[in-house]
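Schema walkthrough. Field components (list of strings):
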Amino acid sequence: MVVMTGAQAYVKALEKEGVDTIFGITGAAVIPICDELLNSQIRYIGGVHEQGSTHMADGYARASGRVGVCQVTSGPGATNIVTGIATAQLDSSPVVAFTGQVPKYMVGTDAFQEVDIIGITASITKHNTQVREAKEIPQAVKSAFFISNTGRKGAVVVDLPKDTQTDSSEMVFPDKINFRGYHLVSEPDIQEIEWAAQLLARAKKPVIMAGGGVISSGASSELIELAELLVSPVAHSLMGKGSIPSTHPLNLGLCGMHGRCEANYLVPEADVLLVVGARFSDRTTGSLSGFTTNAKIIHLDVDKSEIDKNVDSITRVVGDAKSSLRMIRERIIELKQGSKNNSEWFKKIHDFRAMSEGLKSNSPINVPDIIRAIRRAMPRESIVVTDVGQHQMWSALFYDVYDAGYFLTSGGLGTMGWGTPAAIGAKVAKPDTPVLNISGDGSFSMTENNLAIAVEENLPITVVILNNNMLGMVAQWLRLFYNHRYSAVNRSKRPDFVKLAESYDAVGIHGEEINQIETEIRRSIKNKQTTVIDIKIDPEENVLPMIPPGGGLKDILIG
Amino acid sequence: MPKHVVSFIVENKPGVLFKVSNLFRRRGYNIDGITVGALLDPELSRMTVTVDADSRELNQIVEQLDKLVEVIKIKRLDPIRTICRELVLVKLMTQDPEARQEAVEAINENHGLILDIEPETIIAEITGEPSEIDKFLDRVKKIRIKEISRTGASAIEKGNVIL
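Field assembly_structure (string):
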């Protein structure tokens, strides 16, 4: 047992968790812990707005699989993390945010920069807590990291009243914490594995739907091995992109509102649908009546509250995707029914894939071609991040990803402005890997000031803006479903993103045509310079395919 | 929709009741009744919630509450094997002697207690199944009820089982 201040205990507890970087902004209520960070090797990356700092922590977490840490002051510092925390939580990304708070004796008095961040974030976190005494800090930090990065991962907020940072106490740093109310799923139930294996072994038209849980569990190879054994096509949700290589012959691609034809036609035709680490989001299922016409659904998830929440399953497997998929595959091999001829089913993939490939745009510089050019320009091992909107769906449809964890996007919350700071966070996690953000003019404008951090901290990223001076996704809805009545979607042509980039000492480029864009991307990566490439695209271009809101998976619009 | 009783053990800490009720609000479930009381272990409390919900909703209520770190154990109580009791304090206007007589009869028939008598009012305590309390209140309504305070249901399962 040692006597130290809460701030010292906080930094020591972070070091014990292996934290190498903290993203945040300082302020009155976190001065003691910021001061203590000067005595530590932990890198502190100061932001320009707390929202960006949380997205950086989120990008860091998704790129590394380790907890992303964010630290902000009380009051407005704390309220500014709300969007970032909700984004991480909805995509099950392990982020821990520490918020400063007014001293305990002032809590509840509406003191300067006091806000009830525990109340505010209760419904957007996996767990949150306020430290009441300095001596609780080691345990609070350890608990936060453990809860955030185990089971179904998520966001945790720890509120630190200023006096708990400055008070001294005897500190105990526990090696292990026992929670009375937080239990991890151990091994999946053998009976559940048996039922799943029996159903899959007998399936004539199996489809696997992979979600973000496959990536977060590191279960890609188990997923692919099972799919290959069954000759089962694999569709994925937005969060599941990368769980199977885009170029794998069994990959159907994205399913849902902007899903590829092969995914949206084959999922409803399956006789057995194995859903792994996905939560039947409305954007993935379309209308529920059109989603589950024939299929017997097996739902595998580490979070049992997801099972039968939106869609009823015939059987469940509650467990980690990696071990569960391996056990299911081993059991199917024992049943000796795995390898069988479903070549007709397999052939359907090709028929529908041809339909997707047949979609062509008439624009001189059409977006799918730009996305493919970015892929060609980027090294095989590189991270692509997206913002939210049309460019995100184009990226999900046309950007080939070969490995899990190399395509990062804000899925559940759909947070415009996530991309640029998340790319910076990813770059911190993997400094030797090129990181590129595919963005739109609307999304980029929301957090472009984070370019200052990329330049200042020498975290070079490349941003490609697909610029239509329009909030393009909403504009697409207005074109298709509101008779072209453009309300609230037109944007000013200002700022000039090239000049803006230059003002941050980044490189700004006008992207004019495909070859030049490719060259500039390669150059930005080779020169390790933060670069913004502004590409004007046709504001009338639609992301296709698309299911109209309320439609089922087969109600695809393709032209 | 039928009424269901869900009982759970929680950490006895500030803010836990908020997290539980906040979860109900966020997911759009309505709480009919809620009771909270300490257990022998001073770190724990037991909450009992009565809800109107269909089976999918009820399942979600249990699963989502179970995910709260502060919720240690949770169970949907078996509707057949559960004893459920609620207490009500009711103040009746009884200046009229006939009303007073009627009130005393109703209270006695429901094995209630008269806690206070004043010239204008009687305060009674009735304990029973929530439905019995509904019936009692319905009966004394014509006497004129001045004030009602119900506790919400407390519940426990029969036999050698625990939560």
